Automatic annotation (TrEMBL):
<dbReference type="InterPro" id="IPR009057">
    <property type="entry name" value="Homeodomain-like_sf"/>
</dbReference>
<keyword id="KW-0804">Transcription</keyword>
<feature type="DNA-binding region" description="H-T-H motif">
    <location>
        <begin position="46"/>
        <end position="65"/>
    </location>
</feature>
<dbReference type="InterPro" id="IPR036271">
    <property type="entry name" value="Tet_transcr_reg_TetR-rel_C_sf"/>
</dbReference>
<keyword id="KW-0238">DNA-binding</keyword>
<dbReference type="InterPro" id="IPR001647">
    <property type="entry name" value="HTH_TetR"/>
</dbReference>
<keyword id="KW-0805">Transcription regulation</keyword>
<protein>
    <submittedName>
        <fullName>TetR family transcriptional regulator</fullName>
    </submittedName>
</protein>
<feature type="region of interest" description="Disordered">
    <location>
        <begin position="1"/>
        <end position="25"/>
    </location>
</feature>
<feature type="domain" description="HTH tetR-type">
    <location>
        <begin position="23"/>
        <end position="83"/>
    </location>
</feature>
<dbReference type="InterPro" id="IPR050109">
    <property type="entry name" value="HTH-type_TetR-like_transc_reg"/>
</dbReference>
<dbReference type="Pfam" id="PF00440">
    <property type="entry name" value="TetR_N"/>
</dbReference>
Length: 220
């Protein structure tokens, strides 16, 4: 079978090696920055330290991210997403699959599992966001006032859940969204897992049981 070539003579369909190298470099920098931010704080971490940890020149860090604020924002965004792909949470496969479950109980199990994965990445950096935003107005401006994106996600999940046949008829979408938003919060996750020493498995089991009791008709 002949290899199809593009107009520039390159093999069509062949991955762009330069783009792949750039992606890997970006991932290394973000991973190194996350480790350092969590270990020693945003303010105490220099871009030179990030470069050293990532094994790249500091000029590369500046070229990719311009400054530490932009790098910090990328650390937060990729912690939420789990990767560098620009796909919103509600468009992620796990969220869509959870909402497509035929029962409220099934959706809750899948939803809590997906949120657990996110919280395992995000919860440790939540205190960093608060501390950095309190001391740097430009950091705070990266998360403008308005509807909380996390609540928007939970409201969408609640809307799907309350339409299921085993959803409690006396709990509307707004109340269900509040319960999801509160019980699946990073703050509550940290209280149980970091402060009280629960395993993520134990937190997931508790959160699923608590939400099922509040939101489903058959939870015995």
């Amino acid at each position: 079978m002949d290899t199809v070539k593009g107009s520039d003579g390159q093999n069509a369909g062949r991955p762009d090696k330069r783009a792949e190298r750039s992606r890997r470099t970006r991932e290394k920098i973000v991973a190194a920055a996350r480790e350092l931010f969590v270990a020693q704080g945003y303010g105490a971490t220099s871009l030179q330290e990030v470069a050293d940890r990532a094994g790249v020149a500091v000029q590369t860090v500046y070229f990719v991210f311009r400054n530490k604020r932009a790098l910090f924002k990328d650390v937060v965004d990729t912690s939420i997403a789990g990767d560098v792909e620009p796909v919103a949470t509600m468009e992620r496969d796990w969220f869509r699959a959870a909402c497509a479950e035929p029962t409220a109980a099934g959706q809750l199990r899948a939803h809590v599992r997906g949120v657990r994965d996110i919280l395992g990445r995000v919860a440790p950096i939540m205190p960093l966001i608060a501390a950095a935003a309190a001391t740097d107005p430009e950091i705070a401006a990266q998360w403008p006032a308005g509807p909380d994106p996390r609540y928007t996600v939970q409201h969408a999940a609640a809307k799907a859940l309350t339409s299921k046949p085993d959803a409690r008829p006396d709990v509307g979408t707004a109340r269900a969204a509040d319960l999801l938003y509160g019980l699946l919060s990073p703050e509550l996750y940290l209280i149980f897992v970091r402060d009280r020493g629960w395993s993520p498995d134990a937190w997931e089991e508790w959160a699923c049981a608590a939400l099922t009791a509040h939101l489903c008709t058959d939870h015995e």
